[in-house]
């Protein structure tokens, strides 16, 4: 068998990714955008966490949390915000996996790495779809109450 140069597609290999130059450039650009969006979401998560810290360093808010009739509402609100942050963090991780994996897959022409990176993108959209459906359901329930 003859040796193939790095970056060239080995047509005899079952793990070779078969894409042309234009598609490879588009996948790399998609990976870059996915990383940029993931970084933006990470910054957003950090800002929300920082805002929560600032909110509860205020003495009045701490007293409200620990001993008033509105404290139950505040605790529920904190739990909802933390759950939302966890969901966004999970989406961010999946998007980052896609962004990093797609570049590795295209640079190495590796079909398995491509499929693994696409799993991250699939999970990102599944979570986003579930959040979207829950939002629509909540809105419909609120409208027809």
What is the structure about, briefly put?
The chain is an all-alpha fold.
How would you explain this protein's 3D organization?
It is a single chain. By secondary structure, this protein is an all-alpha fold. The protein has one domain. Helices cover 80% and strands 0% of the residues. Helix 1 runs antiparallel to helix 3 and helix 3 packs antiparallel against helix 4. The longest helix has 38 residues. It is elongated, with a radius of gyration of 22 Å. The protein starts with 20 loop residues before the first helix and ends with a helix. The N terminus is likely disordered.
Task: State the helicity in percent bands.
Answer: over 70%
Q: Quote the beta fraction.
A: under 5%
Taking the alpha carbons of the first and last residues, their distance comes to 71 Å
Order of helices and strands: HHHH
Assign an overall shape: elongated
Number of strands: 0
Q: Give the total of domains.
A: 1
> What structural category characterises the helix and strand content?
mainly alpha
Largest sheet: none
Mean pLDDT: 83
- Poorly predicted parts: 1-7
Helix tally equals: 4
Computed CA radius of gyration, to the nearest angstrom: 22 Å
């Amino acid at each position: 068998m003859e040796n193939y140069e790095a970056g060239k597609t080995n047509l005899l290999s079952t793990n070779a990714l078969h894409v042309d130059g234009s598609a490879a450039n588009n996948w790399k650009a998609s990976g870059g955008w996915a990383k940029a969006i993931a970084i933006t979401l990470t910054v957003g998560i950090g800002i929300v966490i920082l805002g929560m810290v600032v909110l509860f360093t205020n003495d009045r808010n701490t007293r409200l949390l620990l001993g008033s009739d509105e404290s139950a509402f505040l605790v529920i609100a904190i739990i909802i915000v933390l759950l939302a942050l966890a969901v966004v963090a999970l989406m961010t991780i999946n998007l980052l996996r896609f962004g990093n994996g797609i570049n590795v897959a295209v640079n190495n022409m590796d079909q398995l790495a491509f499929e693994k990176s696409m799993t991250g993108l699939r999970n990102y959209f599944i979570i986003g779809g579930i959040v979207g459906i829950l939002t629509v359901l909540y809105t419909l329930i609120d409208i027809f109450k």
